[in-house]
C-alpha cells in the first residue's frame, strides 16, 4: 500500500508515527543470481506481488503482456514486472541489472535482478558490488550448473558473505525432499572453499509462491523459514559500525569564511565530537569539533550516514582524502595487487594508462602485470597477457600517486575501485584491492645537478621525440633516416629508435600479440624519455598501432616534447612495396598478428604532421619535418 493511500486513512498523528516507524526500519540490499531461466525475475515479481507494491494499472499491463510475451500459459507471468527491456521480453531472459524496492512491516529492501547469461557477467558483478546478501537460484530439475558455480565464485570474490540457496521450481519435481537435499549437499560441498558467513537453503516455487513469503503446506518436511522470513531476520550490517571509522571526503563545505567542514558518507565505524581523526594520506591530526547535518548537529554519527564534520583546527583536507582514527589507519601505497573484473569489449593490456577511482579519489593508474587469469568455471589460475570481456584476473597495479585503502576483504567501501578509459570516460573494469606491494625502501629518485635543459642548451637545441607511426612499408624508417641525416649535418644531437633494431636487443623477448605490442611501445616510450633527459632529439620509428600507447608515450613527456608524425600511406601502396615480403607471408597465413592484415591499426586523430607518401619525394617529406621542428622551437 502506498503512503498516499495510507495518509488518507490515518489521522495526521498516526501518519507521523507511521513515517517514523518506516524511517527506523533496517535496510537490506540483495541480489538474485544463478543460471539463466532459473526464475530470478519471477521470484522478484512474486515478492513485489505478495508485498502489495504493484499498482492496479501495472498489474493490468503485465496481464496483457503475459499473453504476448509470457511463459506461464494462462497464468500471469510475474517475471515481466522486472524484465522491462523489449529484448528481454522477446528472449525471456534478463540482460540488464534491474533494481526494485519493496518493504514489509519489518524491513526495507532493494533487490537487484542480475543476468544469468555468461556474456553478461559484468552486469552481475555490477549488481553484486553493493549487495549485502545473494539469493542464488537453482532449478530443482537441473541442479547445480556451471553458471551457478560462476556466480557463487563472483559473489564470494565481491565480498558478499551471506547466501541463500533458493532451490526453485520445486513444484516441477513434485516437492521431492530427496531432490532438494541432494542439491543442498552438492552446493555445500562446492562452497566450502568460499568465505560465506551464512548459507541457508530454501525450497521454493516462485511461480506459485510456495515458501517465498509464507511457509507452504505442500512442503511439510521443510522446517526452516520462508525466503522472506529469512531476509527479514538476517543481520548483515551490524559489524559496519564496529569497524574502524572511515569517511571518504566528498566535498569541502565552505559556504562562508566562518564555516569549513568536510562532507561525505561514513563508510564504517562511528564518530563523536571530541574524537581525534587523521587524514589517512598525510597523517595530519585534528579533533572533531562538531558533526553537522541538514537537521542540525549530531552527538554521534555512524556508518551509512551522510554528514559534515568540522575540525578544531585548520589542516589540509581535500576531496578524495579519507578521515580515519589515529590508532586504526588504512594502508597508504602507490602499488597494490588486486582482482579485476574486466567489463570492456576492448582487451586490457598491461602498460596501458587508465583512471582509477577509489572512493572519492581519482588517480592515473596502469596494470603492470597480470599474475594470472581465473577460469571462473574451474577456478584454475591460468597464464595471461591480457584480459577480455567478463574475465577476472589477479593483477599488479601501479598508481601515479599514493592512495589510502583497506584490503577489500576487510572493507568493501575503501577497498573497491573502478578503472575508467581516459578517452571515452567509460568504466572498463571493477577491482578489489587485495594487498599493497612493498617496494624497496632504499630506492629513491636521485637528484642530479646537470638538468635536461642544460644538456640540451649545450647542444643548441631543445629535447624532443619525433614519433613516426604508420603501416609496415609506409616509409617511416626511410623518412626518419633522411630527417636524422639533415639534423646531423646541422650539428644536432640525435638518435633513431627503429622498430626492427630495438627488437634485436631491448625487446627481443617480445612477440607480436596485442599484449606484446603494448609492452613493446611502453619500453620504447620509457627509453625515449631517457633520451630527452639527455637533451637529445629522438626519432622513434615504430608501427605503434594503438592510439592508447601513443597517447601514453606523449603523456610521459613534458608539454611540447612529443611530436607525432603520421606516415599516411594506404595499405594498397604498402602491399605493393612490401620491402621485406611480410604482406605476402601474412596473406598466406604464414605470419600471424600482422598489422593491417589480421591485427588492427588505429590511425592518429591529432598528429602534429601527416605525410602523404603517395605524392612528393621522401627528401621533400623530410624537409617538411625539419621545418616542423623549427616551428616548434626545437631547433632554430
Structure report:
This protein is of the alpha/beta class and 636 residues long. The chain folds into 4 domains: 3-235, 3-Layer(aba) Sandwich (Rossmann fold), CATH 3.40.50.300; 243-324, Translation factors (Elongation Factor Tu (Ef-tu), domain 3, Beta Barrel); 331-436, Elongation Factor Tu (Ef-tu), domain 3 (Beta Barrel), CATH 2.40.30.10; 452-631, P-loop containing nucleotide triphosphate hydrolases (Rossmann fold). The chain is built from 19 helices and 28 strands. The strands form 5 sheets. Strands 7, 8, 9, 11, 12, 13, 15 and 16 form an 8-stranded antiparallel beta sheet that branches. Strands 2-3-1-4-5-6 form a 6-stranded mixed beta sheet, sandwiched between helices. A 6-stranded antiparallel β-barrel has the order 17-21-19-18-22-23. A hairpin with a 2-residue loop joins β8 (251-256) and β9. 40% of the residues are buried.
CATH fold annotation of the largest domain: Rossmann fold
**How many β strands by DSSP?**
28
Spatial extent as radius of gyration: 31 Å
Please write the CATH class name of the largest domain: Alpha Beta
Distance between the termini: 80 Å
Task: Describe this protein with a few key phrases.
Elongation Factor Tu (Ef-tu), domain 3, single chain, Rossmann fold, 4 domains, 636 residues, 19 helices, eight-stranded antiparallel beta sheet, alpha/beta
Amino acid at each position: 500500500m502506498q503512503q498516499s493511500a495510507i495518509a488518507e486513512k490515518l489521522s495526521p498523528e498516526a501518519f507521523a508515527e507511521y513515517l517514523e516507524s518506516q524511517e527506523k526500519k533496517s535496510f537490506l540490499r540483495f541480489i538474485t543470481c544463478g543460471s539463466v531461466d532459473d526464475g530470478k525475475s519471477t521470484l522478484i515479481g512474486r515478492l513485489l506481488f505478495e508485498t502489495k507494491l504493484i499498482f492496479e494499472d501495472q498489474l493490468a499491463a503485465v496481464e496483457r503482456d503475459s499473453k504476448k510475451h509470457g511463459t506461464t500459459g494462462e497464468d500471469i507471468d510475474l517475471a515481466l514486472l522486472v524484465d522491462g527491456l523489449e529484448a528481454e521480453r522477446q528472449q525471456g531472459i534478463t540482460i540488464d541489472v534491474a533494481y526494485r524496492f519493496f518493504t514489509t512491516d519489518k524491513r526495507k529492501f532493494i533487490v537487484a535482478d542480475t543476468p544469468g547469461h555468461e556474456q553478461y557477467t559484468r552486469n552481475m558483478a555490477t549488481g553484486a558490488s553493493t549487495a549485502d546478501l545473494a539469493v542464488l537460484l537453482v532449478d530443482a530439475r537441473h541442479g547445480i550448473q556451471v553458471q551457478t558455480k560462476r556466480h557463487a565464485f563472483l559473489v564470494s570474490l565481491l565480498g558478499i558473505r551471506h547466501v541463500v540457496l533458493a532451490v526453485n521450481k520445486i513444484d516441477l519435481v513434485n516437492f521431492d525432499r530427496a531432490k532438494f537435499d541432494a542439491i543442498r549437499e552438492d552446493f555445500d560441498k562446492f562452497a566450502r572453499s568460499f568465505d560465506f558467513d551464512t548459507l541457508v537453503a530454501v525450497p521454493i516455487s516462485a511461480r506459485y509462491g510456495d515458501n517465498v513469503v509464507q511457509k507452504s503446506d505442500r512442503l511439510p518436511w521443510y522446517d526452516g523459514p520462508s525466503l522472506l522470513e529469512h531476509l527479514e531476520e538476517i543481520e548483515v550490517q551490524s559489524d559496519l559500525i564496529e569497524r574502524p571509522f572511515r569517511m571518504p571526503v566528498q566535498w569541502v563545505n565552505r559556504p562562508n569564511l566562518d564555516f569549513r567542514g568536510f562532507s561525505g558518507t561514513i563508510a564504517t565505524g562511528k564518530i563523536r565530537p571530541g574524537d581525534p581523526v587523521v587524514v589517512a594520506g598525510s597523517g595530519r591530526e585534528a579533533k572533531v569539533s562538531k558533526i553537522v547535518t541538514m537537521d542540525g548537529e549530531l552527538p554521534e554519527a555512524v556508518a551509512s550516514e551522510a554528514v559534515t564534520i568540522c575540525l578544531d583546527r585548520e589542516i589540509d583536507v581535500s576531496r578524495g582524502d579519507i578521515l580515519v582514527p589515529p590508532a586504526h589507519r588504512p594502508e597508504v601505497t602507490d602499488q597494490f595487487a588486486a582482482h579485476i573484473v574486466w567489463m570492456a569489449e576492448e582487451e586490457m593490456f598491461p602498460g596501458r594508462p587508465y583512471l582509477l577511482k577509489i572512493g572519492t579519489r581519482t588517480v592515473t593508474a596502469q596494470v603492470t602485470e597480470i599474475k594470472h587469469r581465473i577460469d571462473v568455471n574451474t577456478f584454475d589460475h591460468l597464464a595471461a597477457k591480457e584480459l577480455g570481456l567478463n574475465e577476472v584476473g589477479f593483477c599488479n597495479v601501479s598508481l601515479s600517486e599514493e592512495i589510502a585503502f583497506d584490503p577489500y576483504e576487510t572493507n568493501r567501501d575503501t577497498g573497491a575501485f573502478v578503472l575508467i578509459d581516459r578517452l571515452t570516460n567509460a568504466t572498463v573494469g571493477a577491482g578489489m584491492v587485495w594487498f599493497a606491494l612493498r617496494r624497496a625502501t632504499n630506492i629513491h629518485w636521485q637528484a642530479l645537478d646537470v638538468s635536461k635543459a642544460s644538456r640540451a642548451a649545450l647542444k643548441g637545441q631543445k629535447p624532443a621525440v619525433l614519433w613516426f607511426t604508420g603501416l609496415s612499408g609506409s616509409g617511416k624508417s626511410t623518412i626518419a633516416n633522411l630527417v636524422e641525416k639533415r639534423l646531423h649535418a646541422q650539428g644536432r644531437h640525435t638518435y633513431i629508435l627503429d622498430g626492427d633494431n630495438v627488437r634485436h636487443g631491448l625487446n627481443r623477448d617480445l612477440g607480436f600479440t596485442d599484449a606484446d605490442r603494448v609492452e613493446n611501445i611502453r619500453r620504447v616510450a620509457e627509453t625515449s624519455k631517457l633520451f630527452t633527459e639527455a637533451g637529445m632529439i629522438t626519432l622513434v620509428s615504430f608501427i605503434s598501432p594503438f592510439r592508447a600507447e601513443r597517447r601514453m608515450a606523449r603523456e610521459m613527456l613534458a608539454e611540447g616534447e612529443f611530436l607525432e608524425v603520421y606516415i599516411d600511406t594506404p595499405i594498397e601502396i604498402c602491399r605493393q612495396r612490401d620491402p621485406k615480403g611480410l604482406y605476402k607471408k601474412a596473406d598466406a597465413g604464414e605470419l600471424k598478428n600482422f598489422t593491417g592484415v589480421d591485427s588492427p591499426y588505429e590511425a592518429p586523430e591529432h598528429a602534429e604532421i601527416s605525410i602523404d607518401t603517395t605524392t612528393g619525394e621522401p627528401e621533400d617529406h623530410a624537409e617538411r619535418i625539419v621545418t616542423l621542428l623549427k616551428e616548434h622551437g626545437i631547433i632554430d
